[in-house]
From TrEMBL:
Organism expressing this protein natively: Rehmannia glutinosa (Chinese foxglove)
Signal peptide: 1-19
Protein name: Pectinesterase inhibitor domain-containing protein
CDD domains: PMEI-like_3 (cd15798)
Record NCBIfam families: PME_inhib (TIGR01614)
Domain Pectinesterase inhibitor: 35-195
Length: 206
């Protein structure tokens, strides 16, 4: 697994995202930002966790404007950032854990969790890369988006697998901590996939 060298680079890139142009945009008027914020809130209603969706994406209103493709791309980027942070946390936890001998099952689950989160990071990175390079219309565009949907679904499955590995592990604080953190990442990934699906269903012409 290759984790991004700096999570700051993910968030730095997000406001500059544009499916159409890389030229810097002028600062939006307050009314434009308000409209974009409303657009994000409305779009987030299509997700399973709308309040989390809005809270995690509203800060990018000036970049998103009212563009569903930009919103989906930003959501994927936020999901990638969360998954990468989780992977680094798991790596650090594995290095400093002292419970391995006392609870080998938990230690194994932690290693497996790190592995599947590494896969999730790679899949989300591929999704973001594809979202930044959307071209064409119709079937060509749908094919590109289908790749994103496939990779993001796989990432969500891998995140689920992390918590599944802790089933049967009892009386372990690490289990509670890792599972709670993983659930939060899963919710963000679920929201991102929902916004990608919403974009495809409502804005991509067959």
């Amino acid at each position: 697994m290759r984790i991004l060298p700096s999570l700051f680079l993910i968030t730095l890139f997000l406001p500059a995202y544009s499916a159409q142009s890389t030229a810097p945009a002028a600062a939006p008027a307050p009314s434009t930002t308000a409209n974009a914020t409303d657009f994000i809130r409305t779009s987030c209603e299509t997700t399973l966790y709308p309040e989390l969706c809005y809270n995690s994406l509203s800060g990018y209103a000036s970049a998103v404007q009212q563009d569903p493709a930009r919103l989906a791309a930003v959501a994927v980027g936020v999901s990638l950032s969360g998954a990468a942070r989780m992977a680094m946390y798991l790596a650090d936890l594995s290095r400093r854990a002292t419970y391995g001998a006392a609870n080998p099952r938990a230690a194994t689950a932690l290693r497996d969790c790190f592995d599947v989160f590494g896969d999730a990071v790679d899949q989300l990175r591929g999704s973001l890369k594809q979202m930044r390079r959307l071209t064409g219309t119709g079937e060509q565009l749908r094919f590109q988006i289908s790749n994103v949907q496939t990779w993001m679904s796989a990432a969500l499955t891998n995140e689920d697998t992390c918590t599944d590995g802790f089933e049967g592990v009892a009386n372990c604080p690490v289990k509670t901590d890792v599972c709670d953190r993983t659930v939060k990442v899963k919710e963000v990934t679920s929201n991102a996939l929902a916004l990608v699906n919403h974009y495809v269903a409502n804005f991509v012409v067959p």
